[in-house]
Write a structure and sequence with these properties.
The complex is a heterodimer.
Chain A (H helix, E strand, L loop, with lengths): L8 E5 L4 E6 L7 E8 L6 E6 L4 E2 L4 E4 L5 E6 L8 E9 L14 E6 L1
Parallel strand pairs in A: 1-9
Antiparallel strand pairs in A: 2-7, 3-4, 3-8, 5-6, 6-7, 8-9
Chain B lengths: L3 E4 L2 E4 L5 E7 L5 E7 L5 E8 L5 E2 L10 E5 L2 E6 L8 E7 L7 E2 L3 E5 L1
Parallel strand pairs in B: 2-11
Antiparallel strand pairs in B: 1-3, 3-8, 4-5, 4-9, 5-6, 7-8, 9-10, 9-11
The chains are: A mainly beta, B mainly beta.
């Protein structure tokens, strides 16, 4: 079973920030938080990942709470092309025996004009 | 990031036949993964394919139905054997070693009639 909980759907107005929450209350000390998105029927696209510090790249920002039990993915200026299913996944980053990802149902983000 | 290609991109097959899907990556990787995404569902891991060893299958997936080859560090195949309409899915390969980001191919869309 997936170790994360996400809302099934969210709407966002074009040009506004999209804030996608994720709960991972059972996360272990050696598990990273990864975010992927899947635009209709394409392969999942990596967005960002982090361990405990906030992270930012050209696509998004990742805010992780101090207790690491939840996080928020922020798309600062959402466009129609950001409409996709967003997956939050916890994954062992080191010291583990598995490199695979376990996908939950994700959040379907709809960006509206 | 790794560039991954899959062949075929889509196919329509008759029940009882088999289809072999190829996955090619532009750099050497230790771990390759095969996922299935049934219509309207999230991704489910089928197996992990490591070069030089037998593939490791997840619960519910067996080698006779989904034989996998991994002849070198840049290539893998997944065969869907004796197909039925229930095998209609998107099949995705991904690459990524322990502690490293996992990247996905574009997927193979399979329809079984």
């Amino acid at each position: 079973d997936a170790k994360t909980t996400q809302p099934p759907s969210m709407d966002c107005a074009e040009g506004r920030a999209a804030n996608l929450p994720c709960n991972h209350s059972t996360i272990s000390g050696n598990e990273y938080v990864y975010w992927y998105r899947q635009i209709h029927s394409q392969g999942p696209q990596y967005i960002i990942h982090g361990l405990k510090n906030n992270e930012t790249n050209e696509m998004a920002s990742l805010i992780i709470t101090e207790d690491r039990k939840s996080s928020t993915l922020i798309l600062p200026h959402a466009t129609l092309r950001d409409t996709a299913v967003y997956y939050c996944i916890v994954r062992v980053g080191y010291g583990g025996s598995q490199g695979n990802l376990i996908f939950g149902k994700g959040t379907k983000l709809s960006v509206k004009p | 990031s790794a560039v991954i290609s899959q062949k075929p991109s889509r196919d329509i097959c008759q029940r009882g036949t088999s289809l072999t899907i190829q996955c090619q990556v532009d750099s050497q990787v230790t771990m390759m993964f095969w996922y299935r995404q049934q219509p309207g569902q999230s991704l489910t891991l089928i197996a992990t394919a490591n070069q030089g060893s037998e593939a490791t299958y997840e619960s519910g997936f067996v080698i006779d139905k989904f034989p996998i080859s991994r002849p070198n560090l840049t290539f893998s195949t997944l065969t869907v054997s004796n197909m039925s309409p229930e095998d209609s899915s998107i099949y995705l390969c991904s690459v990524g070693d322990i502690g490293e980001t996992q990247y996905f191919g574009p997927g193979t869309r399979l329809l079984v009639l």
